[in-house]
Sequence to fold (824 residues):
Amino acid sequence: MAVSWRSWLANEGVKHLCLLIWLSLNVLLFWKTFLLYNQGPEYHYLHEMLGLGLCLSRASASVLNLNCSLILLPMCRTLLAFLRGSQKVPSRRTRRLLDKSRTFHITCGVTICIFSGVHVAAHLVNALNFSVNYREDFVELNAARYREEDPRKLLFTTVPGLTGVCMVLVLFLMFTASTYAIRVSNYDIFWYTHNLFFVFYMLLMLHVSGSVQLLSCVQLSVTPWTAARQASLSITNCLSCLHHPVVLHQYQRNEHSFFTNTMKRGLLKYQTNLDTHPPGCINLNGTHYQNTHLPEHLSEHFHESFPGGFSKPDELTQNTFVKICMEEPRFQANFPQTWLWISGPLCLYCAERLYRCIRSNKPVTIISVTSHPSDVVEIRMVKENFKARPGQYIILHCPSVSALENHPFTLTMCPTETKATFGVHLKIVGDWTERFRDLLLPPSSQDSEILPFIQSRNYPKLYIDGPFGSPFEESLNYEVSLCVAGGIGVTPFASILNTLLDDWKPYKLRRLYFIWVCRDIQSFRWFADLLCVLYNKFWQENRPDYVNIQLYLSQTDGIQKIIGEKYQALNSRLFIGRPRWKLLFDEIAKCNRGKTVGVFCCGPNSISKTLHKLSNRNNSYGTRFEYNKESFS
Amino acid sequence: MGQIEWAMWANEQALASGLILITGGIVATAGQFTQWYLGAYSIAAGVLVCLLEYPRGKRSKGSTMERCGQKYLTRVVKLFGPLTRNYYIRAFLHLGLAVPAGFLLATILGTACLAIASGIYLLAAIRGEQWSPIEPKPKERPQIGGTIKQPPSNPPPRPPAEARKKPSEEAAGVPTGGPQENPMPVNDEVV
Fold:
């Protein structure tokens, strides 16, 4: 019962290491940015005005930068499929990391939601502090236009504020539609709202550019008879103001003076002239740059302007000197770092979508459509230049059924050098598959087995996207593999079996344990022919133990059943009842001492969890089980 | 698109908005903002929305995942009958609850989210959806011996069930009185 540390490390170790690296990156970024805004001299005055809210908002923003850029990478599926197949990633351990790409995407998503909450709360407090702690000394630093300005105005009339509110609403829609319950019941809602991510990224780019004057110049209509002239002036100014702030300054000098405050881009600014104006210095004109929590009129008095460092001799030496300011502090907005963070992954993702679009533009030619028992339809087709490895899946798109929906199906037969046909098995569960089946097989002939080619002139146009990788491709790279399938989950293994039927020698696999659990005896007929032919082939080649088949019928009503008269090899391998996994694992461990066995499961979650637990357990034969899993929905 | 059940999504949104309202309300009352009583109101409204929305309604097709421990609240929500069944009422209730919280900065986002949820509920109501409680399935007690209808009438070895059920279709000449066919005639006289 003990967890074998070797097995655990092999199964979970690399995954947890990557999680740890990601977590420490986030913590490091948060901490560094927090300290920068808390203690950095260039943010001294800003920090005095805003307090803790500034540090929290900027620190969470840097974590958001990292996660918004990382979250796109696991979704570049073509790139991941390429990495899986190429020799550039030689180690099986790193290839297994790619199985967890969806989980990583979800982790980044949840982090974005949490830190957005922190960021929004901190900025709301900042908005409040901007209005309460308005300082006339540093007009450039204020986001508010006058003291006690309503913070809600700051929120809705500045570009960062408005884009921020819109982004929160988009994130809210995306997040509520991505819960497990919605994905399982109404996948459409999840899919359509998740495509709003593009709007989110566009708003994010605008949010950090922070061009404040874009909105405040729209408010510039003063009197009715000059309104038209000024409005047109403002709008042309708005368009050019991004490039020529100086020009705008000239126009607006005789207009409202508060407008000059918002000349510079960005709401949060840093001080540029630290050498000539160290923070906390004394201005000989009487303006006092320290202790801003004192009311403004008190700070005018010169005798209070000595730094507080005199009373504490053990403070830093810079406080014991009275610093004289050479000049007024100058502030400048930061360059929007977020553009650097997200431009790379966003361009990569867009390039990949474009490539997928171009690649899937040509429709496939459907060769045959077969109807199998238990609501399964097999489609065989050909397409030019289509290459796939066993275990990969494709996405089908049929405009006659639905213009917007795409559905993934695992390939059950891959194209080889000699044969360009490939096929999928579809189980008819929802409305898309039902409508698709009605288009492929006219209702009158749905009982018959195979539709002759002559009647197939009116097949609908079908487009495929892919192939995309999945963990099952690895089953050919282990010396011994255990493949467990539940119901229609047998499809990835069917392509593996088809490949072995073609030629088994080039692969590393030398023994395959194939366990297939079904509820209905007729389901076994989907691949009964394939299994029998494979069995006979290995028998002829004198390798009868290459494929070990066990079929389980999990639900029975007491009547003795067989698959079919001609499938004797399968009938003798049919068991009634659920498999006993522990005994199976013990038997495999005993027969393959000291080897590494790859465990693959495509079926219900309960089986998957049991197998995962058993793979981490100790056994006395020195056999290691490595667990590989595909996560659906 | 035709078979989407909007109510489920609206339910998730309303639950999330309730939580956002509670958080915003806590920040407002703890920070002693001006108009902090609106913060207290928003906490109360958030709690009410969360309690109302916690039990998930049953889907019209397929099985629904229950939230953890929702059966107690399902009983309470079921008591209100048509008030909670009808989604029009829920839509307007949420809209009404959301409006006062919009006047305070800390709870403005909760208002926006709850307003969106109320809009989706309105859409669900227009499409005729209704809230129906998820009833717990009655536990089927396994009856001991329930499948044994009749004890076997012959000693072993017994032929399989199919052969046992076809005594009348056998060719004439088989002795009636049991499906057992004796390979040799048996009589009980001792000679």
User: Anything to note?
Assistant: The longest helix of chain A spans residues 5-39. Chain A touches chain B through 31 residues (CB under 8 Å). Residues 212-264, 291-319 of chain A have pLDDT under 50 and may be disordered. The first strand of chain A starts at residue 269 and ends at 271.
